[in-house]
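Re: the request from the purification team.
They wanted to know what the chain is likely to look like in 3D before they choose a buffer screen. I agreed to run a prediction and write the result into the notebook, where they can find it.
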Amino acid sequence: MKRKGWTAAEAAAAIPATAAESLDLPFLTVRSLSTGQTFRLFLRQQAASAATSGVFNGYGLSAEATLPHF
């Protein structure tokens, strides 16, 4: 507010409505091995029509490869 010279009302109006949305998904609280920061990793389950192979990240998840239902 100070940097832009805004009032509290102007600053509140500038915050997008999506900033107040929350995810209703399960999550894991994990710590980054590279930075040490803790963050929430939200998971969305989606049905696959066929098994697909792919690369997995350090958390054992993949954006392309299918995972078994757990």
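For the purification team: Residues 22-70 form one domain.
Please add any questions underneath this entry.
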